[in-house]
Structure formats: C-alpha cells, structure tokens
Amino acid sequence: MPALVLRAVAALSRAYLRLGCLSVRVAGLDAFLRLVDDPGRRAAGRGLLTSSYFRDPKHVRWSLGASDIIFKNDLCRWFFRHGQTLEVVRGHGIFQRSLNDALARLAEGQWVHLFPEGYVNLTRSTRMRRFKWGVSRLVLEASPTPLVVPIWLMGLDQVMPHPRAHPRWLPRPGADIGIAFGEPVDVAPFVQAYEQWRAAPNIAVPPFDVKAPAEHLYHGTPLRSDDATGYAHIRSYLAAHLRHHLARLGADTRRELGLGEGEGTLAHRPDLRG
C-alpha cells in the first residue's frame, strides 16, 4: 500500500509541475540524486537528512508532520502514514517517538526530509525562524552521521496561497517554482563536540564560531529532566549552523535567478479573508 500511495502522489505531482505551473527551475538535482542512489552510502547505513522519477519507496523520503495539522482524522492519518510521514506531537519535545523513528530510518540509510522551522509561514516574509533543536538531535545521535543537504524551495506559497477560495485543497495553477539542492553541510565539529560531551558531561562545551541571532541559542533556560545543558548548547549552535547554510543557499539562488539581494515576498495576504 505505501508504494501505491507514493506512486499516485508522484504521478499527480509530476502532472501539476508539467501542466499547472508557469515554470519549474531546478538546480543541483544531478548531484543530489547521486547521493540518494549511492549504494555505498546505503550499505554503510549512512542516512540522508534534508532540510525542504522516485518509484521505489526505498528512494522516497521519510518526513515529519504535525499531528494537529495533517493527522487530524482517520483518512489523513491513513494517507500520510502510507506516504512515509512520521507524526510529531507539538510540545512533546525532541525525545518523542517520531524522532526516535526518524533516527531508526537514518540508521537504515534512508532519506529523511524535514522543514526545520516546524512552522507554517502564512506571512509575506521569507525570513527564516529559529530551527528546531530536534533537527540537531537527528544529526548528532544518528550513527553513522548522516549527510545533511540543504534544499531551497521557492514558489510553493503560490500553489497554496493564504487565504484562498474553495476548494481550498486544490493547488492553484500558474506558480513559478524554484528548487535548489545544496552541497552537504560540514557538521563534523559539532559531532565531535557531542562525542566529547558524552564522554565527559561535566566539562564545559567549547564555543562555536556560528553566525546566529542571540535568541536562537541556548542561554541556560530550564530544561526537561531528560535533557542536559551541555547537549542543549551543542544542539542550539548546530541548528543555527544549519540555518546559516540554508539561508546562504537561498541568497545564492535568488542572486543566480536575477531576483536581487535580500528577502523575497510571499504570495500570502494575511490581512484578507478567503
């Protein structure tokens, strides 16, 4: 059944991209497909973690989705579970079952894709929020360390603008879609710091040279009983590091497409009512 669901979604998506979009521009796809199809990576159990012609479910991403948004009834639960989506319960922290399941998929050499902000942006700004620290857990605790590949998506807000008239579930035609696959991000310094912290939890974690807003980093706020300050410190800096690389990919993509410097503008109109 998962294969049937995945093939149906893939066929409908291809039809929409070919017939329903104004344009579809893709950069870096060949290099990314080589990573996905690399038999050596899969044989070594090295997963593929991405932050935005597949017919074989083994070559289709696993993803994480919010329980209150896409698992809200029996039909949605059936569809998304067969579509290789793991259910995340907001507010249950980074040690919940879905992240454990994602770690298991990575250990099998599977591809796990996620949206690291954990947020549905209905504003007009493309500025990224803080990345959820659960992303860092997937990188640090997976063994072996997965390849972490940023993917920049543009134009999907035009497919489902907010607000929109009925039928709200139907994708809107005429979107200008852009997808850019980046190079794998170097996470070795953070993995090394994590291993050192595990060996000696009472030793202070060294600072990292990461560009990030101060509010995105851990500053000693209270943690759950199953967490630790040293680990939270490493997670916050790694999440900021990944955010920086994705933002840089976005800026480079906009520049290469002639869209200028700075942020773009989304198609949403939050001041209007559908």
From TrEMBL:
Membrane topology listed for this record: Peripheral membrane protein
Domain Phospholipid/glycerol acyltransferase: 47-156
Gene Ontology molecular function, alphabetical: 1-acylglycerophosphocholine O-acyltransferase activity
BP term (GO), one: cardiolipin acyl-chain remodeling
Catalysed transformations (reactions): 1'-[1,2-diacyl-sn-glycero-3-phospho],3'-[1-acyl-sn-glycero-3-phospho]-glycerol + a 1,2-diacyl-sn-glycero-3-phosphocholine = a cardiolipin + a 1-acyl-sn-glycero-3-phosphocholine
Main location: mitochondrion
Keyword annotations: Acyltransferase, Lipid metabolism, Membrane, Mitochondrion, Mitochondrion inner membrane, Mitochondrion outer membrane, Transferase
GO cellular component labels: mitochondrial inner membrane; mitochondrial outer membrane
SMART domains: PlsC (SM00563)
Location relative to the cell: Mitochondrion inner membrane; Mitochondrion outer membrane
InterPro entries registered for this protein in UniProt: Plipid/glycerol_acylTrfase (IPR002123), Tafazzin (IPR000872)
The keyword Cytoplasm is assigned to this record: no
Family listed: Belongs to the taffazin family.
Protein name: Tafazzin family protein
Organism listed in the record: Malassezia equina
Organism taxonomic ancestry: Eukaryota, Fungi, Dikarya, Basidiomycota, Ustilaginomycotina
Gene: TAZ1
